[in-house]
Structure formats: C-alpha cells, structure tokens
Amino acid sequence: MRCDDTETQMINTAYILSAGRSGSTLLSLMLGAHPDAFAVGEVSHLPKNVALNTLCMCDSPVRECPVWKPVINRMGEILDVDLMQDPYAMNLGFIQATTVIDHEKMTMGYNLAGQARHASIYLARRLGIKTDFLPKFREGITQTRRLFDVIRDTQSVRMIIDESKVYVPGIALYERAPAETRLILLSRDGRGVTNSLLRSGMPLRAAVKRWRNYYTRTLQLLEKVPPEHIIRVTYENLATNTEQELRRISGQLGLDYHADMKSPDQVQHIANGNDTRFRNMRVQLDTRWHDELPEEALDYFESVAGSLNRQLNPLTASANPRRATATGT
What domains does the chain contain, in order, with CATH numbers? Predict the structure, then answer.
C-alpha cells in the first residue's frame, strides 16, 4: 500500500548515510521488509559478490539466487555483456572492501585510485567546483540507478533501500534525481560506535577520528540538500520507539506503515554488507559502552567529538552518563 500524497509518490530511492556500526543493517532490513520495498545492502559491492559468488542472505550463491540471477542477467542484456563472466563491467562505483576482498581486482592501485576519486569529489563539492572531470564516477552513478530500475521492474517494488553509507556517491545519487530520492541520516551515540570499534581492536584515537570525520564531512555535503529531503534517525530512538519511528520514516518515504517492518529477521536478498544479516536480528538497544568504555576514553571522546555527538543525538548524548549517575545529576 502507498500513501496518497503526490510528492511522496515520486520517491523511489532511500540512501542510508551512517558511520559503520550505527545500525544501518538493522534499519535497512526493517525498511526492506515492506512489501513495496527492496533492500540492496551495500550495492556497489555487487560486482565483487558476483565475481566471488558469495552467499546471498537467502543462503544461495549470488549467481544462483532466484532474485539476483535474473537481475544480473537483465543488466547484462542492457549492457550487452555477460556479467557472470565479467561482473565488474557493471561498474557500480568504487568498492571499499575491508572484509570480503577480491584480491585480483582490489589491488593497492585500485584502492588508491578509488580513494583519490572520492577525495577529489569531496573537495570539489566543498569548493563549489563541478566534477565533470571524473567520468568514471559519473558512470558508476548512472549504472547504479539503472540497476535500481531493473530491480524495481523484476521485483515489482517501488522503493529501493541502499545502505552503502558512503557520502560522496550517496549525495551524487540524490543529486541525479532529487525528487525521487531521500537521504536517511542515521546516527548512533558516537561512544557506542567507538566502543564497538575498540572491541574489534582499533585504537581509541583512530576510532573517535573515524566517527567524527564521517559525520563532519557528511553534514558539510548535506548543507545544500533541502532539509525536507533528509530523514534524520537515531539508532537509540529506532531501538526504543521502533513502531513510532518506522511509521515516521515510512510516511516521509511515501509508504504506508506495514507490521512486517518490525521483524528484521525475515529472509531478504542482501548479497553484501554486514554479516549480521545472516543472524536472527532482534530490535534491542545496545548500551554496553556505558559499562565498558574506560573513563579516560569517555573524556577523550568528549574533548574531541562531544559537541558533534550532541548535535546528532540531542536527546541521548549527555556529556558523561556514568559520571552523571554517580553524582546524582
């Protein structure tokens, strides 16, 4: 079912912007559970997943998945390329792979070139310079939107949910069709993200810098996007006021709320992204950082990123909840 508002009926793409470990997989699966939506995961990785024939969320290899196989074949017909033999001809943009890596494709040169392209585009946009000098990047945006059209057609859905999170291509996708696209700015208390990164072995300063830089740069690029085209969501509110938040987000996307959205454990067809998609996901607020982050880590985060944290999460990001509890404030 769809809402009646004419303007929201034009919306057919939602792109999630968030730092890693902020709940993007959870939100994507919730929205993708809507009968008129399809979650594509981190879609730029699809050529790599076809090349390596990795598992789709449905437990089928991507090349045999009943959803992705016809999509890939249809894209191949459009491009006049056998994408099963040459999946990178799909060109959905730079693949920032950190876990599942195609070492034949993702060489040091490939990574440096891709990072340089994104850095150049970010700087050009900050300076108001056109980015027509990067045709390979523009082709990636064109091909991504073409893939989305194929998915809508083959799956009979209207809404594509892209959880790629990368701000440079995300905002470029929006700019290609602003009336049809909404950007979901998802944030989680940065101390929760920092704690998660520390648990994975990342040093404190690097973890805080990664979180701060992501949102600083994203907010800078969002300055030219109309506020009504940005849907702001916090992980904490999504986890504690789930139905209310899903109703709000759905409405802004032009979708009627559907009860299935509260069940992110349903099998979907995300071929890439966080491995949590293979688990039975539950909507449960994770506040382990309250107990696990050392006092010096809390103080360091506050000095470096505290004000940004409160800007993004004004209802939950007190300066130091552990200290506030101890003093009774």
Answer: 12-327 (3.40.50.300)
Distance of alpha carbon 329 from alpha carbon 323, whole angstroms: 9
Q: Could you tell me the pTM of the whole model?
A: 0.93
- Taking the C-alpha atoms of residue 72 and residue 50, their distance in angstroms, rounded to an integer, is 9
Contact 60, 236 (CB under 8 A): no
Report d(CA 63, CA 70) in Å as an integer: 9
R_g of the chain, CA atoms, integer Å: 20
Tokens representing 239? 């986890």
Amino acid at 240: T
Contact 93, 104 (CB under 8 A): no
pLDDT digits (tens, 9 = 90+) for 277-311: 545 677 889 999 999 999 999 999 999 999 999 99
- pLDDT tens profile 144-181: 999 999 999 999 999 999 999 999 999 999 999 999 99
How many whole angstroms separate alpha carbon 199 and alpha carbon 99? 16
Measured CA to CA in angstroms, residue 113 lies from 6, 39, 93, 120, 217 at distances of: 42, 28, 12, 10, 20
Output helix, strand, coil percentages for the chain, rounded to the nearest 5: 55, 10, 35
Alpha-carbon gap, residue 281 to 259, rounded angstroms? 16
